[in-house]
Design brief:
- This protein is an alpha/beta fold.
- The chain contains 20 helices and 31 strands.
- The chain folds into two domains: 479 residues, ANL, N-terminal domain (Rossmann fold, 3-Layer(aba) Sandwich); 128 residues, ANL, C-terminal domain (GMP Synthetase, Chain A, domain 3), CATH 3.30.300.
- It has a seven-stranded mixed beta sheet with strand order 5-4-17-16-18-19-20, sandwiched between helices. A five-stranded parallel beta sheet has the order 7-6-8-11-12, with helices on both faces.
- β16, α11 and β17 form a beta-alpha-beta unit.
- Bound molecules: 5'-O-[(S)-butoxy(hydroxy)phosphoryl]adenosine.
């Protein structure tokens, strides 16, 4: 194929990866397929275990209704011994966490020896605050090293952490605290981002008002701002953590014990808490991080995500630390103080592997090349992307301008549910194609299905499923296994349904086409249309709301809200403003509607289901391609919508 980009020489040079080309990839993939247990037990040996597991997968998709499948069930470990202790022994002076604060050049370098002491102190402090194995702690923090330390300290106690992204509102935070029954919340006085303060403690206080389940709130001091204080509940980090002993005996955990819960959006108004395990998850995060990026001992690895999302868990904290890497944590934004910030960071820290999201690449490309070229990027070797499909133009810019043609681009497809990367190039081995996530990693068996569940062979386009479990897969939804089964296994029994559409070309390369369900992906943030809708219909003047995504040049998807007002109500600027405020309060600042349209009614089937397909077409401005509308309960409604669109949207 003419648009295939060979692996640049710089990427292959010095690689000791066992997978050097597509023949190696094929061999590894077939080996994993023929003996998955043997393959994954071998990968599991990369971790430090108290007792090595003797079994791989038990159960599977066929029996998932009866209960979760397991990996390595007889293994015993504490993940922090793999992520911290063994490196503190072997490479104590190597930088584990390289922190770049919000202000350019505000840097902290935390070695593995220091990290070990910090994690142990924090674990001791958390134990004194009463946190026990199996109990849940919510983390509501910004991008400070202490967020990673707190995650690891929970893991050291066998407690289950759930990190809530610092942009979520008090209500969203409270929902998550309640859903997982958290005993403890860890937060900070304020976050810093793009020169501004984020009131993390104040939001925590609002979220916990009237909540009695949370016994203690541990507060890390980041800015020194004055914050509210609840006596007997709130505790300063610098008082209890810094004073604690740097020695701590890790709690032994079963491989299948939960390591963390991470909430993500689905097709209902209620977020679901995906449960990831100690042994399987860490094996998978470690393996994929090593193989995809071709990690080397002297790499300076930078993933520009937030620990509030799965990317931050797997590829800032757990994968890199399990591999003894130097992992960069970045507190700021790509545009602060200007659009050169990422490349300034690359230059000053000599970053070799750089991993970000397409939305950031598009936003930066729009600012012009000067911001990039004025910085030395010669240290870079591998450039990663994640979170949404990357359009070929943005891919080209990343490859040509940022990487100057010397770096491989690894477009990594995966999900909160998958724990780690499933489909992606292997840096030294896989020729790339702009816009394609390329090939499945060893141990991963993607399949394309038609809507009737028939498997499509050869080049085709269909619904992306995975045929067999892998160790990093989420085992259940916290407190609601039935929802886990219904969401992922009901549509195509015996397979995991990803919710994504995908095209597979003649060479077996995968091109993800985006979500086929009611999940939005806005600037790499996953949000459910139902979450928007339930917030909007809570507003008195609004009778009905339907939210759909539409293509947006920078954000990937924009949010289009269709509103039906109550009898006698009229649209006004004030009402639309109230919609935005309501969304900010109910969900968070990242939940904003880009376009509103008031209409007399929504297109529905005879059974009353809103036909989003039609609303999506209309939102894209393709009202002339509506296709079959014969199943509509009221065909008139479409012409009424069309005339409303041409009229006033009151925006
Ligand atoms: C959804 C998962 C994976 C960590 C960040 C997002 C989309 C993710 C890609 C990619 C095309 C992608 C999918 C997926 N997605 N990576 N490389 N190419 N689409 O995790 O919030 O769970 O969202 O993000 O639609 O289903 P998430």
């Amino acid at each position: 194929m003419s648009d295939t980009v060979p692996v640049p020489a710089r990427v292959r040079e010095g690689s000791v990866s066992p997978i050097q080309d597509l023949n190696d990839w094929r061999r590894a993939w077939l080996q994993a397929r023929n003996d998955p247990d043997g393959f994954w037990l071998e990968q599991a040996r990369a971790l430090r275990w108290r007792r090595l597991p003797s079994e791989g997968l038990v159960g599977g998709y066929d029996t998932v209704r009866e209960g979760p499948f397991s990996w390595f069930h007889d293994g015993i470990l504490n993940v922090t011994e793999s992520c911290v202790d063994r490196h503190a022994e072997a490479t104590p002076d190597k930088v584990a966490i390289l922190w770049e604060g919000d202000a350019p050049g505000e840097v902290r370098r935390i070695t593995y020896a220091e990290l070990s002491a910090m994690v142990n102190r924090c674990a001791n402090a958390l134990a004194r605050l009463g946190l026990k194995k199996g109990e849940r702690a919510i983390l509501y923090m910004g991008m400070v090293p202490e967020a990673a330390v707190a995650m690891l300290a929970c893991a050291r106690l066998g407690a289950v952490h759930s990190v809530v992204f610092g942009g979520f509102s008090a209500e969203a935070l409270r929902d998550r605290v309640r859903d997982c029954g958290a005993e403890l919340v860890i937060t900070q006085d304020e976050g810093r981002r793009g020169g501004r303060s984020v009131p993390l403690k104040a939001v925590t206080d609002a979220a916990l008002e009237g909540e009695h389940g949370v016994k203690k709130v541990l507060v890390f001091r980041r800015t020194g701002a004055k914050v509210g204080w609840t006596a007997h509940r709130d505790v300063w980090w610098h008082e209890v953590v810094d004073a604690a002993s740097p020695e701590h005996e890790a709690v032994a955990c079963g491989a299948e014990d939960p390591l963390f819960i991470l909430y993500t959006s689905g097709s209902t108004g209620r977020p679901k808490g995906l449960v990831h395990t100690c042994g399987g998850y860490l094996t998978y995060a470690s393996y994929t991080h090593r193989v995809v990026f071709d990690l080397r001992p002297d790499d300076v690895y930078a993933c520009l995500a937030d620990v509030g999302w799965i990317t931050g868990h797997s590829y800032i904290v757990y994968g890199p630390l399990a591999n003894g890497a130097t992992t960069l944590m970045f507190e700021s934004t790509p545009l602060y103080p200007d659009a050169g910030r990422y490349w300034d960071v690359v230059e000053r820290h000599k970053v070799t592997i750089f991993y970000t999201a397409p939305t950031a690449i598009r936003a930066l490309a729009a600012q012009g090349d000067d911001f990039v070229t004025r910085h030395d990027r010669s240290s870079l070797r591998v450039l990663g992307t994640v979170g949404e499909p990357i359009n070929p133009d943005a891919w080209r810019w990343y490859f040509d301008v940022v990487g100057e043609g010397r770096c491989n681009i690894v477009d990594t497809w995966w999900q909160t549910e998958t724990g780690g990367i499933l489909i992606a190039p292997i840096a030294p081995a896989t020729p790339t194609r702009p816009g394609s996530a390329t090939l499945p990693l060893p141990g991963v068996r993607p399949q394309l299905l038609d809507p009737d569940g028939r498997e499509l062979r050869g080049p085709s386009q269909g619904l992306l499923c995975i045929a067999e479990p892998w160790p990093g897969q989420a085992r259940t939804v916290w407190g609601d296994h039935a929802r886990y089964v219904a969401t992922y296994y009901a549509m195509f029994p015996g397979r995991y349904f990803t919710g994504d559409g995908c095209l597979r070309d003649a060479d077996g390369y995968h091109w993800i086409t985006g979500r086929v369900d009611d999940v939005l992906n806005v600037s790499g943030h996953r949000m459910g249309t139902a979450e928007f809708e339930s917030a909007l219909v809570g507003i008195e003047e609004i009778a009905e709301a339907a939210v759909v995504g539409y293509p947006h040049p920078v954000k990937g998807q924009g949010v289009f809200a269709w509103l039906v007002l109550q009898e006698g109500e009229e649209c006004s600027q004030a009402l639309l403003q109230r919609c935005q405020t309501t969304l900010r309060v109910r969900i968070g600042a990242h939940a904003r509607v880009d376009r509103f349209q008031v209409v007399p009614g929504l297109p529905k089937t005879r059974s009353g289901k809103v036909m989003r397909r039609i609303l999506r077409k209309l939102a894209e401005g393709r009202g002339d391609e509506l296709g079959d509308v014969s199943t509509l309960a009221d065909a008139e409604v479409v012409s009424a919508i069309l005339s409303a669109i041409s009229g006033d949207s009151c925006e």
